[in-house]
Each structure stands twice: as C-alpha cells, then as structure tokens.
C-alpha cells in the first residue's frame, strides 16, 4: 500500500504530502535553503502474520495471511514484495518458517510464521521470489522497463549543489512555514516527479515510453529515436525524447518553465535534464539524472539511486486542490 490523497481527505493530508514532497526533493543531505522538512510519522506496525492452517500434511497447501500499517516496503522471504495486506498460498515440501519484513519510520521490523509438516526437517524460507528472474526484453531485444516502481526515498543528490558566481539569488531561502510546492498541488518537474514518495508506472513500446506518476495524476510521453521539435513551449514537465544506448534508456528533457525547483534552487528556461534508466535486474532500475542550467549551476547537478519494482501495486487516484490554504492552523 502507498500513500494516496483524495478530495475527501482533510487539509492535514495535503500538508503531509507538501512536507514529504519537499523532503523527497532534498534527499540527504538536504541542500541549504530548501524549504520544508519531513514529519516523523507513525512507526511501521505488523498487525498480523500467520499461517492457516499452521500444520498440514506433506503436499498440502497452507495460506499466509498478513496486515501491515505505515510501511514503506513489505516483503516475505521466499515470496517477494507484497502489499500491506493480503494472503498467499504456499505449498512447502518440509516444515518452513517464513519471515515478513517491513521498513518504515523508525526502521525495520519483522515477524515469522511457520507451516509445520510433521516428521520433516525444519527450514527457513529465503530469497525474494524474484531473484534469478531475467530482465524482460521486448521483441526487438531492448530491455523492457515496464512496471510499477518506487524511487523517492532511494534517489539522492550525489553532491551538494554548486551555484555560479552571481546566481545566489536563485536559491530559495529556507522558511519553517514553507511546505513546498506539494502543498499547492503543483507539478514538481523533472527529476522532481521521480523523487516524490509515490509510485510511478512505466509503459514501454518499441517507439515510445510513457511514464505515469501517481502524484498529481501527471504523465510523460517520451518518443524514441526522435529529435525535439523546433518550437518547444515551456511546460512544468518539459519536452522529452529518448533513445537506447545499449541497455540504458537515455531521456533528454528541455522546454521547462521556471516554476519548479532543483534541490531548492530556481532555474531559467535553459534548464536541461538528461535521465538514464537501466534495468539492472528483474526488480530494479538504476536511475540517474544530470541537471544543467548554464545561467545558474557552476557544474551539473546529479541525482542517482534505484527504482524498485512493486508488482503488487497499482497506480492509485490522486486528487489535489490547487492553492489549498486551509493548513495554517496545523502549523501552530
């Protein structure tokens, strides 16, 4: 399960994402001058993890049942990534103990459940259920990046931002009451949309890649092996074209407006972002973004990290009201 805002949720939900969004943009260590900070949040909790029936005959089936709250990641050794609530049929050949592992605010937690087969040796389930699966390919041999992924908490600045002499005015001063663009329901741009703590879905064909972002209900259509147009209008998410270099999808993005931030720094319409997506194994895409603006940055700004596959997830509906201003009482 992942965080989803709807129109029926309170202003506090919008504030929470504003804070989370700001924190995601300022991945550790947060650059000086970036507004907003993440709340502590409730600790992850394992409500239930059990096998039913707990004892079976050889060759019979048992079912694992679990429920987890406030978790970023949830997995079961021997099964793989799972949703925060669900069940899974298993048919072990011998007495087997399964371990449920979760991560969230406050660190990691685990719980075990055992399926007993009388008269057999006890073992512990291992692996993530996806290990060893090959990277899927399209018919033309290119790696297939398709799937639902989460990146936000793993993708970080490679080094502090360095501004050109005279460009200090582009830095946004830090304010304790500034909740970031997320509180105003405005698109975060690129790579900001990848840094948000919400999933994204990649849909790939030989001639185009589409990326759907749960946050803000925004999307990008990335034609492959095509140049940018001659007259690109400035937009929040820019104009993207892509190509494969070996097994890496390289996305070139230009045509940004000046409304988004890069690590707490404003930019000009000359902003240029180069993204790289490389599926290193079945469950992981190595991501890199190189951000350039000759009027602002003394050297390219780099982000890097992994997008983790979540086959158990679907993109949810995200509804936000622009310029929501009902959160002031929550700041007192």
Count of β-strands: 18
Main pleated-sheet profile: 10 strands, antiparallel
Shape: elongated
Mean pLDDT: 84
**Percent helix range:** under 10%
Question: What is the strand content?
Answer: 25-35%
Q: What is the CA-CA span between the terminal residues?
A: 31 Å
Cα Rg: 22 Å
Q: Helix and strand string, N-terminal first?
A: HEEEEEEEEEEHEEEEEEEE
Stretches where pLDDT is under 50 for at least 5 consecutive residues are: 1-38
Label the structural class. mainly beta
Number of contiguous helices:
2
Structural summary, described in words:
The protein has helices at residues 11-25, 192-195, and strands at residues 45-52, 62-69, 71-76, 80-81, 85-90, 96-104, 107-115, 123-124, 147-150, 156-157, 200-205, 208-213, 218-223, 239-245, 248-254, 272-281, 284-292, 301-309. The chain is mainly beta and 332 residues long. Mean pLDDT is 84; it is low at 1-38.
Summarize the topology:
Layout: H1 11-25, E1 45-52, E2 62-69, E3 71-76, E4 80-81, E5 85-90, E6 96-104, E7 107-115, E8 123-124, E9 147-150, E10 156-157, H2 192-195, E11 200-205, E12 208-213, E13 218-223, E14 239-245, E15 248-254, E16 272-281, E17 284-292, E18 301-309
Parallel strand pairs: 6-8
Antiparallel strand pairs: 1-2, 2-5, 3-4, 3-6, 6-7, 9-11, 9-18, 10-18, 11-12, 12-13, 14-15, 15-16, 16-17, 17-18
